[in-house]
Amino acid sequence: MGVKDFLSSEQAISAAVSAVLLFGIVVSVITLVYVQYIPEWKTSAEQSHMDDVFYDMSGMKNELDILSGYARTDPYISLSVSVPIKMGGASLPIFSPEKSSGRLTVNEDNFGINIVGTTPGIDYNSDSLLLNLGTVSYKSDNNYFVNQKYAYEGGSLILAQNSYSLMRLGPQMDIRRTDNSTNITVEFNVIDLNGPRKAISSNSIEEVNFRTNGSDSLYWDGVMFTDMTMTIQTLYPSSWKSYFETLAADAGLGDTEYSVSSNDTAVVFFLAGSSGEDIKINVTKTFFDARLNLLS
Questions:
Q1: Which of 3, 28, 120, 164 reaches 20 to 30 Å from 291, CA-CA?
Q2: pTM of the full predicted structure?
Q3: What's the pLDDT at 75?
Q4: Nearest-CA neighbor of 150 among 213, 105, 110?
Q5: Quick check: keyword Transmembrane in the entry (predicted)?
């Protein structure tokens, strides 16, 4: 076939048109996947990764709760645990293999507690015993799903999202009526994390190591108080305020027996009880040495 015949051939035109149409279809499909489906898949994958982070952080809290029980039973025992945290995820093979990431910190946030118990003769103050208690936090760096922060402080696990916060797991604290409902007992085991301030950003797996280092208490056993004021210094006052309100309601306390107030940096829980009711305060503190990536 000559050049002139080839140029005028309908078969050549059909093949060229088919190739162009096929190329257009492929481009359209790829564009549709990347514009419509990839963002949805990545959003779902990053949300799933945040569930993994909650699982890791809640596992960390559970480990510390258990070890603190052993430490209070035998203050001279030394126990340790290493908790892995999955920092990043949400990769989609072939389509979008890049991972999201996160920032893990130890003792970066400020958290402390002050307790004042009032008796007719003298006021008892926790002073510096419960200040600078230490924290562990994880903050996500997502590309599609809303960023979240998990903060462990005083034995509680808090979820913060934008300007809102919610206590997902409460501390080792209890308020209940005792002595045939004639008194109110407040029990609180506070977790104190000691160690250097450190932070790391990563999309792999990082590790936080904890080692028990004894315990302490307020030594107020047997003292009967007319009222108690507990002040929590925290970055998440709304979560602690809701927690105290729930705790008081579960204890069957009426509106005249307690109050909860807050500002941007603190929550104040005041407990007085009804006429004739005294308050017992039993507060202990478990020490942990906390290290980020102990072996690196």
A1: 164
A2: 0.86
A3: 79
A4: 105
A5: yes
